[in-house]
Design a protein that fits this description.
The chain is mainly α. Helices cover 74% and strands 0% of the residues. The protein has 1 helix and no strands. The N and C termini lie far apart (70 Å).
């Protein structure tokens, strides 16, 4: 039988692992995005009064 404590412990561990994985993934994605922006030169937008 599975107790509520086991479920809570599993959910806590899963949440911690998920947080670490998403933090690492977001950091790598930001680094790749910034590297691509520097390589291409970024996007420039000009706003004009109409």
């Amino acid at each position: 039988m599975i107790s509520i404590g086991q479920v809570a412990a599993f959910a806590t561990v899963l949440a911690l692992v998920n947080t670490v994985v998403l933090t690492i993934t977001s950091t790598v994605a930001a680094m790749v995005y910034n590297a691509g922006g520097q390589l291409v030169g970024g996007v420039s937008a000009t706003l004009a009064d109409g």
